Amino acid sequence: MRDSIFAALALCLCAAPVLSAAADGARVVGLEECIRLGFAYDAGVHSDELETHIADARLREMQGQYVPSLSLQGGYSRLSNVAPGSMTTDVSLGGPPVPATITFPPPLENSTSVRIALQQPLFTGKRIAASIRQAEALRDSSRSDLGESRLGLRYAITEAYWDFARAKTQREAIDQSVTQAELHLNDARNLLDEGMATNNDVLQAQMRLEDSKIDLSSLESVRDIARVRLALLIGLPWDAALDTAEAPPSQSAEPPQGSVADLVARALSKRPEIQGARSRVIAQEASMEVARSGLFPSVFLTGDYTVANPNQRVFPQSDQFTPTWSLGILASIDLGRFPQYLAQEEQARGKLTQAQESSRKMADAVALEVIRTYLTLREAAGRLVSLHQETAQAEENDRVTQERYRQGVALSSESLDAQTLVVRARLREEGALFDCLTARAALDRAVGE
Fold this sequence. Notes:
The protein has 449 residues and is an alpha+beta fold. The protein is built from ten helices and eight strands. The chain is rod-shaped.
């Protein structure tokens, strides 16, 4: 996905004239609409959603171990002809023994049977319960991974959206600067004709105009690159004509209410990474119980119901279907695999320790991220207030200077400098506003919102 974005950005640089066309027919998108489109398009989110479905199916599989095993068997056999057997024995009927020959009936040539067998686990050393708990924890972990992907995608789209809005706004500001430079050039020429300006004043105005045009061309490329990145993130063609809604007021970029400690506590309770790390710890605890369950015998209730012709349990055999049944208890333990069970338990214990350490490390990283993004947002919000005052001062200075220039009191260079200060102040203020918006999005992501 990232490689395709970079490739499209490079293509955008070669196709800037195409991207600049059809501005009037651009599709205006809001931030929430972009996020909705991105969630519906992103392959990583779709993959994580499938992973959660797989985890749900795995959990149902583990829960099915409590259901008794019920098997149905049926068969038919054709037996070869065997000569009837006989045996000689002495038979006593109250007198001296008398030799007698007993002849067995000929065996039946056809054998048909139907058997239903049942096996219900009674005790498995907590293996079934532990495997279900492990599957539940892994399912929760996959859901946390999905939440993390969505949170990261939301931030990526938000960042791209504000980058596009920033480039568009700065491009419009430079466009106004070009217009002002053209007007200033016309004024300088008129004053030159009236003898109130010099050729150098006209030359300075021309240089200012060319500089503004160069800046305008550069910002057009930046705007087109930002538009391509946003379009690819939300699943639109790279050359789609897009436009953003108006930027929200600066109040939306203010730091949230509450202390840093409150934000850290919210992050530790809401961040998907933290929840996923805790789920993996639970899964490893259950894995260790699964490994330990092999040290205990397994006990099952068994039973079967057989209808066969002939039935081998009936003597003498007869050419008819005869039902029989059985019910019993089966216990088994594999003593030869004890060394393997102990090794598996040791491995599970080591992985459990790793999961616990990873969870602790994740909590520290989240706390650091919350503090860093909070301070970044607070610093950006303070800078925005200062730059707003600076812009107001630059605009007042420009108003006075231009009035003095038209009266022939101020120099052309002073007029150009005043206009340049206004443009720079506005660009810095707008840049600070978008910095605040991006920093607020980063803080929201750090908190898990």
